[in-house]
Fold this protein.
Amino acid sequence: MTLDPALRITFLKEEIKKYDIAYYLNSESLISDYDYDQLFSELLELENLHPHLLTQDSPTQRVSGSTRSEFNTIKHRIQMLSLSNSYNKDAILDFDKKVSKELEGEEYEYYAEMKFDGVSISILYVNGYLHKAVTRGNGIEGDDVTANIKTIRSIPLKVNDVYREGVLLTDFEVRGEVYITDEDFILINERQAEQELKLYANSRNLAAGTIKLLNPLEVAKRHLRMTCYSLFSQQIKLTSQSNNISLLNELGFPVSGVSELCSDINKV
């Protein structure tokens, strides 16, 4: 009995996605590197034999073999602003006073999250598929780094089916921070030392430099990660940041595991 290649390809894609989610989102290793590579190689071979069965959400499409000469510039739909800093409690309390004044007596809460020190990225999804990824740039426009962001295995090429208000959420913008973990940073510098190359100063600068590499194959070697914290969509009414984080999680995006809904500024 000959195995249907379409069924086998579907099975392999789902298996690889399952192992990627376990490893990159849940820090669980469910399969050996060798067995994972065997599945990936089989999928790649089947897609080469049956190119009409290749889809844009296949794991094999994460890393492009082509090198760009430069990045295209894309204008943000909504301006990307930077966060303000504060270094003491008085500054936080002053901020709260401004919020209270602007809201003119309305009740409000804060959603406190960890700040990841990396590179801000905006990702646009169309029909449920990853369409464009853009750096913050000057806040008005940034560089198209779609091919590089696709190398981040925790970022879905196609999101999970999630309904809100009877609407399948397929068209939206996600923002987050791309970074390199301390562990991966150490490993990268160890490889640099073995080759007698210059060591990188810190993981934040390395992440920023990696995003701007023109060869996605080199980007994939750096093991970039991303934590998502922002969601925009015109398909449904978005009501709160805490609900947005839950929605991002349902869609399949990595979010901070450290966050809390706070009833007032002192809880923050």
